[in-house]
Amino acid sequence: MSKSGSPSEPALDADSVSGEPATIPATPIESQQTAPRQRREGPSLLVLGLVAIALVLSLYIGTQVIGVLYNIVVPPMPPLPEGMTQLDYSSSAYGVDTWVYGTEANACDVVRFYEANGGTCRVSPFWCLNEEDTTSFEADAPGQNVGQCTGTMDFSLFVMRWNATIATRYLTDGQTHVNLSREILWGGMSATSTPAAP
Q1: What mean pLDDT comes out for the span 22-31?
Q2: pTM
Q3: Where are the alpha helices (DSSP H) in the chain?
Q4: Cα(191)–Cα(184) distance, integer angstroms
């Protein structure tokens, strides 16, 4: 038997002769592992949805807080007819204020204004008997009380109660004077009593 036909000697390829390792062809498993992974769209949409909900919720809460803070800094005024001139102002505490206004308007018209704006009014006898009556009782001295009106107003988380005392027959600063007071109830409790007229 010749040496070339001997089964004990393996055949040499060109790579083994050159001294470089032989490459093994890629199997289907390896080609699957090296393929780029596809991104999933589900979690990213969920995150965007949660961020949008959080943004809307924070905007809503922010507007509520800003409204409350604004009402603390600038509480509302009690109802006031047009054409009033401020004559005096005093404050005993933050949100507890008293104004004095003068006007040439008729006292009974001022009483009707406060009744139309949610006030409960008590009118002195013989005054403002009907819509046509203006001054049914002639007073000799100036400063004749015509009526007292009280009311409340809810705003934001708080309550304001107000009191207006209307008097007439003044000789200066308008024939009718209105002593207007307010008290802000910062606790938001309903007003069960009205402030006494000063």
Answers
A1: 56
A2: 0.63
A3: 14-18, 28-34, 42-73, 107-116
A4: 10
